[in-house]
Structure formats: C-alpha cells, structure tokens
Design goal:
Number of helices: 8
Radius of gyration: 16 Å
Distance between the termini: 24 Å
Oligomer: single chain
Order of helices and strands: EHEHHHEHEHHEH
Largest sheet: 5 strands, parallel
Number of strands: 5
Strand order of the largest sheet: 2-1-3-4-5
Length: 199
Amino acid sequence: MHVLTVLDHPNPASFSAAAAARFMEGAQAAGHTVELADLHTEGFSPLWTLREAEGDTPKDVLAEQDRIARADAICLVFPLFWWGMPSMTKGWVDRVWSWGWAYDQLDDREVSLQKPRTGVLLIPAGARSDEIEQEGYGQSLDTAWIKGTLGYFGWSPRRMELLCGSTGSLDRRQALLDRCHQIGLTLPEPGSGTRPNAG
C-alpha cells in the first residue's frame, strides 16, 4: 500500500512528530511506501474561503486531493486540543474533503465518493486513559470522528488510537511510540473487515 501520513504540530521535535515517524517506520517495515504531509512545515492554510464555498477549488486543496488519490491508507497525527482537532487538522478536513469530491449526500455517512482506504487517527493526549474514559471523552470522540465524519471519507476499516499519557515518563512515551510502530506494521488492507474499536 501507499500510506499518507498527515502531521499537525508546529514543533518538529514534538511527540506528535515522533509518533508520525515511528508509524511510518512500521509501515515501511511492512513493505508499504510512505508519504508525509507536514502541514505546518508546508504552510498549509486552514482557512475556508468564500471562493471555496462557491465551488472554486484552490491549487493547494487540489494538491492535497492528489496526495489522497495516491494513497491506499491515511494516518492523521495531531495532539488532542481542547478535546478536538487543532485548527490545522480541522481546516485540512474542512477544505480538502469537500462536498462533491468526498461526498454528495448527508443521509448515509457510510457512502463516500472516494474509494475505500484504511484510516488511522494517532492522537497524543496528556490525560490518562482512565480520566478520558471516566468522563466519556473517548466515546464522544469515537462518535464524532469514527462513527461520523470519517465514514464520508470512505475510510474502511478505520481506528482511533488515543496515545494517553504522552507527557508522562520516558518509559511511557517509548511504549506509546512502540505502539505507533506496531500500528504501522500491521495496517489492514482497505475494505477488510469491520473497524476496530477506539482505544
């Protein structure tokens, strides 16, 4: 497979960048080709404009859509930011996965204009997993992203991996990076089976 990794973090020395690198190393070890879209380094604009709202697709969006067209699997890597996506990721989703290109209906979120692709979210989070589950945040994110948004993108199977405790000890951080490598190493083929549970 050709695997596109989309990274959203302004610091190239961040844990998110390390997670993306380890995931790609795992994918390469499995024999896949990899491509990195580093949104901050490349200066992607997250701003949705009137021009786009009126149906004119800008060149930067077309370039991202070309990247997606090459991909059999896509991994988004971004830190959990106020219990959601940071602005660069949200803008990339809003602008690139547009009406008429990714989907043209709202009544069935499992129908996309795109071919099936394996989809992964790797999300570093400072909170502990028990804190996230106790407050119901994990289920809320699963409902919003996995059960909702990403179905319109044709991602199947798809999984969300919360990398809880990413600001913790070195041992904890290393264990999370090893998990990212394993996820890259064991990526399922597009359309294979049902989506894994979040966690």
